[in-house]
Amino acid sequence: MSPDSEPEPEPGTLRPGGRTARVRTAVLRAAGDVLAERGVDRLDLSDVARRAEVGKTTVYRRWGSVPALVADLLVDMAEQSLPREETGSLLGDLRAGALLVQRTLADPRRGALFRAVIAAATCDARTAAALRHFYEVQVTEWAPCVEQAVARGELPAGTDPSQVVRAVSAPLYYELLTTGTAPDAPAAERAALAARAAAVAGVYVHGQRLMG
Amino acid sequence: MSPDSEPEPEPGTLRPGGRTARVRTAVLRAAGDVLAERGVDRLDLSDVARRAEVGKTTVYRRWGSVPALVADLLVDMAEQSLPREETGSLLGDLRAGALLVQRTLADPRRGALFRAVIAAATCDARTAAALRHFYEVQVTEWAPCVEQAVARGELPAGTDPSQVVRAVSAPLYYELLTTGTAPDAPAAERAALAARAAAVAGVYVHGQRLMG
C-alpha cells in the first residue's frame, strides 16, 4: 500500500494511535524542528515531509500550506501542554506557572519554536488565530488557581483570572522577545511575585476604576 | 550632480539637515512604511529606494542589506522617541510611560512596525542587537522616574529602575504579540498600577531573596 493511498481524514480525527496519528506526530515534530532551527521563512512542506519520512503528497494533501501546518502544530502544543500544578497557595501556583513558562522559553528548541511562531503570527492571520487559541487554552487551564485564591480570601472578589495568569507570562515573553535572552529562574520568581502583588492590590478586579 | 556622486559617509554623520540627512529621513520613512504594510520579508532595498525617490545605488552603498537598514531605522526610532514626562508622582510617571507605549502599539503604522521589527529580530542577530539597544535607550530615559520615587520614599531603596520600567511595557507588548490586538487605555492603566504595586511590594529590589 502506498503511503498516500488511504483516504485523508482531518488531522487527528481517525484512529488515534494509528497511522494517521503517527504521521501527524512525525510531521509536527519535523515542522517544529525546522521552525526552531531556521524560522518560519524556511519552513517548506517538502522539506518537512522528507525529515518526517512521510510522503510529500500526504503532507500537501493533509496540511496544504505552511500556515495550516503551523496552526496544527499549535493545536498539538496546546493538547500536549502540562496540566497546572495545585500547591494550595496562590503564590505557589503562580510560581509553578511562571517556572513552566520560563523553562519552556529557556529550552533551546522550545524557546526558538515560540519565537518563530510568534514572529509568524505577526504576518499571517491563520497563525495569529492559532496562537491566540493556544494562549486561551493555557489561561483556561491556569484560571482555577486564581478562582481558588479568591475563594480562600487571598485575592479580592471580582479578580479576573485571565488577567492574573497573563500577568505571570508577560514579563517572561517580553524579556525573550525584546532582548533575545531567555528568562532565568529569578525572572520567573519576580513574575510570580509581581503578579501576586498586583492582584492583591486589586489591579485585576473586573471594572477596576482608575485610582490615584 | 547625480544623486550618487558624492562620497558616502556613515549614515547621519555628515551635515545634519543637509542632503545626507534628507536622504536618510526619506529612506527610513519608506523602510518603515514597507515594514508596517508588508513585514520584513517583503522589505527590498530597491523598493525602498523607489518609494523614497532616492537612487538605488545610494541605498545599496549606504545601507547594503535589509538588516543594516532595519538596524538604522531602530537607531532613528530611539533618537526620535519622546522624552519622558515628569508628573511628580511614581504612578503619574508610570501612567505616562504606559500610555506612551500603549498609544505607540495601538497606532496602526507604528504598531505594525513594532510587530515587524520584533519578528525580524527573532531571526537576525543584527536586528536583535538594534532592538535591544532601542529598549535600553527607553529604559535609560525612564529610569529616573523610579530613582526619584525611591528618593521620595515611594519605593524601597535598592529598587532596580530598569525592572520597573520594563514591567510597565511587558503586558502591553505581550497582549499585542500573543493576541494580535493592540492594548487599550485601560490596559495601560493596569500596566502602570501593576508595576507600581509590585515595586512597592519590593519585587524589584536588587538581590531580592525568594519569599513565601
Automatic annotation (TrEMBL), chains A, B:
**Which keywords are on file for this protein?**
DNA-binding, Transcription, Transcription regulation
Membrane spanning stretches? none
InterPro entries given for it?
Homeodomain-like_sf, HTH-type_TetR-like_transc_reg, HTH_TetR, Tet_transcr_reg_TetR-rel_C_sf, TetR_C
Q: Which PROSITE patterns match?
A: HTH_TETR_2
Domain HTH tetR-type, first and last residues per copy: 21-81
Q: Where is this region: Disordered?
A: 1-20
Name the PANTHER family on file: HTH-TYPE TRANSCRIPTIONAL REGULATOR RUTR, TETR-FAMILY TRANSCRIPTIONAL REGULATOR
Q: State what protein this is by name.
A: TetR/AcrR family transcriptional regulator
